[in-house]
Design a protein that fits this description.
With 328 residues, the chain is α/β, with parallel strands linked by helices. The protein has helices at 57-65, 68-72, 77-83, 88-105, 109-113, 132-141, 157-167, 183-195, 234-237, 248-251, 254-266, 280-287; strands at residues 4-21, 24-38, 41-47, 121-122, 125-127, 147-151, 172-176, 198-202, 222-224, 243-246, 270-273, 295-296, 314-315, 318-319.
Amino acid sequence: MTKRILEATQESWPIRGSFRISRGAKTTADVVVVKIKEGNVTGFGECVPYPRYGESCHSVLGEISTVRDAIAHGASRMDLLTLMSAGAARNAVDCALWDLEAKLTGKSIGEIAGIQTPGPLITAYTLSLDTPEKMGAAATKQAHRPLMKLKLAGEYDLERVTAVRNAAPKSRLIVDANEAWTLDMMEEYFPKMADLGVELIEQPLPAGEDLALSDMVRPVPICADESSHDTSTLDQVAPLYDYINIKLDKTGGLTEALLLAEAARDFGLGIMVGCMLGTSLGMAPAMVLGGFARFIDLDGPLLLEKDRRNGIHFDGSVMHPPKKELWG
C-alpha cells in the first residue's frame, strides 16, 4: 500500500450574527480539517472541538498528530477505536478515512457500511438563545420551517417557547436546555411544554444528575445529549432517557456512531442526529445516520455566513445528499 500522509489544519468560519446557548455565545465556527492522502487521492474530515469536553483546536491538533505514523502505516477505522479516545479529533480522522476509502474503491458510503443511506432529509432549524421577544421575532422570519429547535436557558423558557409558538404556529418544535434546568423547573415546564406542542426536550438537567429522571412523569420525551457520548455510556443513559442525540464529534466518528445507532435501537431508544456548529464537510458524514433517526439537526451550514465550495444543497430545510466532491 502506498504510504498515507495525514495533514490537519484549523479553520474559522464566520457565523451569521452570533450563536448563543446557555453556556455562552460565539461568532465563529472554529473547526479542524483532516486530509489523508494516498497517492493522488485525498480523503477529508472535519471536526469541531468543544470546550464543554475540554477540547480546543490546539488540543485536537495535538491529538491528531499522535496517529500520523499509524495512519502512514495503514491504520484502519477500526484501529482508531483503540488508538484514539472518542471525541472531535478521532471524528475528523475517521471521516477522512471513510472518504478516502470511498474514493479509492469507487463505492458509496452505504455500500462500504452495508446500509441503505437516506435521500433528502428535513433538518431542524436552530433558534439561538435570546429574549422571548427576540426569539419570537426570529421565529416569525423562519415560520416556513417545518421543524425548529429552540435553545433555552432556564428562567423565562416558557415565555420563549410561547413566543415562538405564537410566531410559528405550523412549525414542529423541539427544545434544548443544554443542562440549564433544575428539578423544580422540570416539574413546572414539562406539562406546559406539552401543551405548547413541544415534541422533544434535550438534556434538561446537568450531565451527572440524570438519576432524577428515573421516576419522573414525562409528558414530552427526553433526549440525552451531554450525557450520551458513545457505546460506553449507553448502559447508563438507556434507562433514563427516551432518545439519544448522536453527534460524530462525541462518538469520535462515523464508525462508532453506526455502532451506537444499532445498539440504541436494541435498547428501544429513539435517535436524533445532531451536530456541532460546522460546515457541510462536518454534516455530510452525519447524514449517513439519517435512516436511523426521527429527528435530524444538521443545520450548521445554514447558520454560517458562507459554506464550503460544493457544500450540501439546502432547499429550505431539506438537505440533499452531498456531492462526491465534498465527501463520500
